[in-house]
Amino acid sequence: MKILGIESSADEQAAAVVQDGRRLLSSVVASSLDLHVAFGGIVPEIAARSHIEVIIPTINEALHSASPTSHSDDLWSSIDAIAVTYGPGLLGSLLIGVLTARTLAIAKNKPLYAVNHVEAHAYASFINETGSNFKLPKTAPKFPILALIVSGGHTQLVLFKDHFDYRVLGRTLDDAVGEAFDKVAKMLGLPYPGGPSIAEAAKSGDHNAFKFPRARTENAYDFSFSGLKTAVFRAAQIQSGHSYDFPSTKLPRALNEAQKADIAASFQQTAIEDLISHLKAAEEEFQPKSLVIAGGVATNQLLRDEAKKVLGTEVIIPPIQLCTDNAAMVAALGYYQASHKRRPADPYSLEPDPSLKM
Ligand code: KG4
Ligand code: ZN
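# zinc ion complex -> structure
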């Protein structure tokens, strides 16, 4: 069964074709990231406008590369269904993806599956065959699966007993971990997106230079990063030689490169240790057969290394291209919906849900 996945919940417009939920036939991602860098974050209107421009070419390219020998009129014949992200995300961006998918489902007469973006991040881990040069995990995760989904918008720990039978053990009470990376980077004057910038700056820093606090939450599996962010801000103010009323906008010029590197390294260490300790506690309590780490923050090398070092269970982390936003994960989850006889969405009425929860 071949599924066309469509993803447009934030700044990435993506389309992909995946066979049987595991074989990646094509994955195309057009990012409008460059247009947002100058603003230090995603500008929703710019993102939505770029989706309109690139969505059809992206879908066409995904269909073409999935069956390069097929004639253009034939590209749709081998597609069994369409899966589209309908939330959570930016309303304007989601609208473009959902309306396009609805139109195609009607015009091409294909079943339409509505996919939760956060859940889809975990399903990237099921993709383990490809003709491309992606370094895919060799095995598929086995149930029960403990999944840590960490991105710019989400941080949650989920226990999957089976497909569509899951329990959210904890989620962030305030900032997502990727958002904390983005905000700390902004404070230090490092470019957006903050995750890769912090990781790069941290290479030349001392991760023991500062001792930042880790949040304690009532439910031990919940997360909280706003206290850490504030502690980093206070430390940066002191390092700059000013007091607590020094504005964050002036910090980048008041700190030298060595100070920035030490702050970045200490922040990264604390944030990653926090994620790992949540995983470790849940691993001990629930004894999963596989651990999955997915989402944009899963590209963090320290997180990858620590997870493999500290956790006893087999850890499956998708390759970088399938950790950041992509449509292959959407197609993979769409496949499991179809093969588990989940009800397809109504192409005449499916609406995006920007605050959709798992
Ligand atoms: O999954 P994703 O591409 O989009 C969302 O659904 O949010 O995740 C993007 C997030 C951003 O916050 C970015 O700063 C973070 O992932 N990120 C990282 C790294 N690379 C990207 N965070 C930490 N370390 C990285 N190497
Ligand atoms: Zn995402």
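# post-check
The longest helix spans residues 257-286.
The pocket of zinc ion (ligand 2) is lined by residues 117, 121, 151, 295-296, 325 (CB under 6 Å).
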